[in-house]
Amino acid sequence: MATRGYFKWRLSSYGEGLTRRVLLASAFARVLPARKAEVSAFDLSLLDDAAVPNELFFVREHFPQPADLSSAAWKLSVAGKQLSFDEVVARPKRNILFTLECAENPVGGGLVSHAEWTGVPLASLLPSNLPATPEARFVTLSAADGFSRTIPIEKALHPDTLIVYAMNGEKLPLSHGFPLRAIVPGWYGMDSVKWLRGIDAVSGAAPADGYIRKVKSLLSGVRDAGRVTGIQVKSVFTRPQDGAILSSRRFVARGVAWAGENLVSKVEMSLDGGKSWMPAKIDDSPLPYSWARWSFDWKIPRSGEYTLTVRATDVKGRVQPGEREPDRADGYESNSWQTIKVMAA
Amino acid sequence: MKSLLVSLALLFQAGTSLLERADEAFRAGDLERAAVLARQVAARDPGAVHGHMILGVIAAQANQWDVSNRHFLTVVRLDPANPFGYFYLGQAKLYQQQWAQAISYFTKALERKYPERERLMVELAMAQNESGKPQQALDTLSKISPPADPRQAAQYFAVTAFALGRFNRAGEAIEQIRRARQLDDSNAHYWNFLIDSLIKIDEAPQALAEAIVAQRRFPDHPDTQFLFALASHHVVESPLSKLALRNLREAEPGSPRVEIAEGLLYRKQGKTEEATAAFQRAARRGAPDAHLLLGIVYKENGDYEEAEREYLAAERQNPASGQLMLELGKLFLVRGDLEQARQRLEKAAEYMPGAGTVQYQLGLVYRRLGQTEKAEEHFRKSKQP
What we know:
The structure holds 2 protein chains of 2 kinds. Chain A is mostly beta strands. Chain A contains 3 helices and 23 strands. In chain A, the strands form 6 sheets. A 5-stranded mixed sheet of chain A has the order 4-3-12-7-8. In chain A, strands 5, 6, 9, 10 and 11 form a 5-stranded antiparallel sheet that branches. In chain A, strand 7 (136-143) and strand 8 (148-152) form a beta hairpin. The relative contact order of chain A is 0.14. Chain B is an all-alpha fold. Among the domains of chain B are: 13-115, Tetratricopeptide repeat domain (Serine Threonine Protein Phosphatase 5, Tetratricopeptide repeat, Alpha Horseshoe), CATH 1.25.40; 119-186, Serine Threonine Protein Phosphatase 5, Tetratricopeptide repeat (Alpha Horseshoe), CATH 1.25.40; 331-385, Alpha Horseshoe (Serine Threonine Protein Phosphatase 5, Tetratricopeptide repeat). Helix content of chain B is 78%, strand content 0%. The mean pLDDT of chain B is 91. At the A-B interface, strand 16 of A face helix 1, helix 3, helix 5, helix 7 and helix 9 of B.
């Protein structure tokens, strides 16, 4: 006889541990090994406010974090001139909201977070004659860990490109580039160089410093197809997450969507693998460089497994693709739809 | 006569195939069809035990207890030696939290040699533990090995954990519930018990780490989200209390526990008045531990009389709370009522055997009572990991 056992446990008590105690937040403590580059994703299910708390912000290092970081002893070399940390922060400051994403962030991944950044425009640190110098086409940003990136002079001189010293109103944490880092808003995170030590103008061709799009072709094998720069339009679920088990017949699905230098214009959810779409509500006023939270009031008709898909479109009409281009031979800019499976009990 | 016999034979044959179809539909999960067919079986042959069984199980799964009880009672009336009827009656009573009746029916199923003995013993132990007899539950479980089926094995370890929890053997309970969860991580209650137990033994960071994973897996389970809020509150640096409150509001809108979670958040933000008001609202609505929290807030503000009043109200509601005994003990200690302090703190130690803070407070009490050796012993225990 086929039977389904039903087993129900009700907690006989909870909340007996209620008291005020001072305890270390080892729940999120990340042990940083002395000489290894750290990568840790932001748990998207923990998103509440638009800004991600510093201790939860994703971390991506290319090389191990430098030792002996100190703002007092810090020197930033700008086109050959040495500036102290105090000289940098004494300049007129700006605040920018920017959703930073790692170029290697997978679909649905947590190598993305949002913060308010405080600093000075990079342009204000460069020599005043720099734009007029015909040879200067790029600016190289060099870090104390040995990492460096080169960005076009136009982007370096953009008023929103900053050298920052604070994140969400607090001084930059060590793992996020203390004491100074670059913020190149709207572009993938590798250009927002941490532990910034040097800014130099470069003439001629840009040095080959990685993050190149690669495509496969039958005729020429794998070829370069340009640098990875601006962040592509993308969206993710924060709630529910893949594999979640839902108890009720109504659930507010939530997530975030972003589009780099552009604004998100719409977010849609599908329950049939992308055959049809329903509009989600965008809960934040769209801002440049910033993700916007979205929500969808989902009435669940019956118990069973459901497949949910989300996609975003930006103001330029660019919509997330259903799948990654099959001829891409690199792991950057993964921005196809996110699809998750959940169970309604 | 011959035609009557033929008709009866045909009727019987039709009835049998109807029953088979009902059984098939049930096994395939088509409960509507199974119910229709089973009702036809019952209508044609009221003595068809199997048809009543199907109807009883379908009704039980829809929480139609009167209907299910009626069918199962019919089964045991028609076939008193049939263990299944008693087993399903036991399950129905278990689900309705009528523990004594569940125990009685399971015992009868056992006497009639219900074939899935291990499964039955696990459910019997569950009922025994829930009826306040954890030792009986442990004794029952000791007579079997964990079932081979992973879900049933998970239940075995879970019931063991729940029973150990009643003896305040939190460390062992945690070990058992972890085994249950390893076998079946889709049961929110296992996660919730683990988080609650970790909070009880003062392992707040671990509790929070588990709660973070649990809230992701069960995003609208009210108990899970409430425990997430509690665990986040206990880890002072946690920035997740506001998120946990939002999740709880969506999972259990307007509930007294939302008032508790609000109060905890206000407390974390240093907003004492707002926290007090939230706890008062929760207390008026009978939320567990609301009086305890009010007592803590009043004590923090130096209002010991109000704190004592609230703690005593909490004690009337739930005298077996280790945390409450600790807070009462501390309050009586501050007020110089050493004997009351000692009694409450000894109780706290019984409920929270590993809690260093309880041992420390006992050390203070015994020192004030002039019992130096005992004081030293408790201070030593307070430093043990």
